[in-house]
Amino acid sequence: MQELQTFLKDKAYDFVPLLDKCKRLSYIPHNIMEKGSYNGKLKLKIQVLSPLHIGGRMQDYDNMGNIIKKQVSRNGNMVIPGSSLKGAVRSIAEAVSYSCAVKVPDNILKRILPINNQEQCSNINNGICIVCSIFGIANGEAAYKGKVNFGEFKLISGGLEENQIPLLEKPFKNDTTNDVFYNNNEKKNYGNERLYYCKACETGRCQNCSKEEYSQNIKEAGKERDMAFRGRKFYKTNGGNEAPPNKKVCCEMIRTGSVMEGELIFQNLRKEEGMLLAYALDINNYFTMKLGYAKSLGYGKVRIYLEEVESASNRYPGSGYLEKEIIENWGREYRERCSDEIKNVINKLEEIMK
Length: 354
Prior knowledge:
By secondary structure, the chain is of the alpha+beta class. The chain has helices at residues 82-95, 107-110, 130-135, 179-182, 193-196, 211-221, 271-281, 324-337, 340-352, and strands spanning 13-16, 24-25, 38-48, 55-61, 67-71, 73-74, 77-80, 128-129, 137-139, 142-144, 148-150, 153-157, 160-166, 232-235, 248-254, 259-269, 289-290, 301-311. Strands 3, 6, 7, 11, 12, 16, 17 and 18 form an eight-stranded antiparallel β-sheet that branches. The protein has a four-stranded mixed β-sheet with strand order 4-5-15-13, with no helix packed on it. It has a two-stranded antiparallel sheet with strand order 1-14. Strand 6 (73-74) and strand 7 (77-80) form a beta hairpin. The longest helix has 14 residues, at 82-95. The chain is globular.
């Protein structure tokens, strides 16, 4: 049976460009209060725009013995773990700032990252990038807690439903990596090279490139062909056009219209870091964030609202004062005042996640 064709134009994701620069600054230990920094708490509300499933290890069974994957809960209350939101916000912040290099499996792919940004932050004494400063770092001997702490978000209105969700496969299931690039006969599970980082030709037809064209192009280009990552992957708001798999699993999901509440606490946050954080949280609603399982099918859409700001300036001498309007202005300010390179990335991100 002929294998189904896979085109980038039909995928549920697209890519924002990688920035060829990383800016590192000195870090401040948590036992020192940096003068002019900001300390306090953001109280946030999450509105669920499409059914959301964040699974844990718990599962149940229906009367037929079929598995029901349970939504994460705490003491019987449905929650979005702070780590889930933190990961999504960090990914956005990494994409739209001069952060350190994206993580890759090994040195084979590392060498095709942008020439001036191929290293992750690894020695805090040599400085860390803005994202590692905000969210923390755990890379070998480098360990830094970061300046923000995301709490759990608890369900305050709405409820649960059960949905049959396609059982999604790993990206490298459709791997077409060519042996000549890796100079050995072992098939590498690096994902679909044609969709993720192929630069075997300059036709500009990447969105519609067939496997046959891809195979012919890499054969002609040979072992020494140039390659580069397309960028960081983000899921489109409404998913892709490809047919979902036939296998399904029943998932307990937080239903559309539900509302969650939670907070994040920050310490020693510099203004530039606060501006980036405010944009990445999307409290000004420039894009639609997605969390949890089956994002490729349009599930997990959420919107974040800033409800209240608690400034700790009265408790920390030299700390800057904050209020809700200032945080909202920070998000707008970052978007408007960033470099042209970052503006290009932001425009592409918002186009994908509109």
